[in-house]
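Budget justification aside, the reviewers requested a transparent look at the raw inputs and outputs of the sequence design task funded under Objective 1. We therefore reproduce one unedited record. The lines immediately below are the structure tokens for a 202-residue chain.
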């Protein structure tokens, strides 16, 4: 994290803005608009793109992935346009937390992968592109969204250091840890070989 130079009130403001943007339940909204029902009653009950895909609607899943990434990117880009670097990172973290713990859904949100990728892409396009490539390659080879997410998140703090963006290392490490925490059940299933593959109904 950069040195905190902004007034506390400014940091709180951008934390609130980031949280509110991140807490927009893209998947839930799209599922209702597109007549897919209550996403929280489908499949795993998660509000992310992987669970939307379990409805069989690939368009809805793609739009959810895009929307969840865009809200994370929007928080970063807005803060960057109006505030100092410390507020940008605060907004980024808050957007991720907003997706995972949205007030509108009683703090039961998604696992944050698309929002994580959107945040990183906005913070460092090269680092974000590498993270997305790791996710896409792993998903294509293993057909497991959770494994792809874990590898992409886990490597991102290393990637930002290697490409000369070390000032983002603590933030991306914190986000990666949160991604792993949100995927605790997936990690257990990966260890036992029972993790469902992309497109499965389970």
């Amino acid at each position: 994290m950069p040195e905190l130079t902004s007034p506390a009130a400014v940091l709180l403001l951008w934390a609130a803005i980031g949280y509110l943007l991140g807490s927009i339940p893209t998947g839930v909204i799209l599922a209702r608009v597109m007549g897919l029902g209550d996403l929280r009653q489908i499949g795993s009950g998660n509000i992310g793109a992987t669970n939307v895909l379990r409805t069989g609607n690939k368009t809805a899943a793609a739009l959810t992935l895009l929307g969840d990434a865009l809200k994370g990117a929007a928080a970063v880009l807005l803060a960057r346009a109006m505030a100092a670097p410390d507020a940008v990172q605060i907004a980024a973290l808050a957007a991720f937390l907003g997706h995972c713990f949205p007030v509108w859904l009683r703090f039961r949100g998604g696992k944050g992968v698309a929002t994580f990728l959107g945040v990183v892409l906005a913070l460092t396009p090269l680092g974000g592109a590498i993270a997305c490539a790791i996710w896409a390659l792993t998903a294509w080879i293993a057909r497991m969204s959770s494994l792809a997410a874990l590898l992409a998140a886990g490597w991102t703090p290393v990637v930002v250091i290697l490409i000369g963006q070390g000032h983002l290392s603590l933030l991306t490490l914190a986000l990666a840890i949160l991604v792993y925490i949100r995927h605790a059940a997936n990690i257990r299933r990966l260890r036992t070989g029972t993790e469902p593959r992309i497109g499965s109904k389970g």
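Residues 8-192 form one domain. The two ends are 39 Å apart (CA to CA). Computational costs for records of this kind are itemized in the attached budget.
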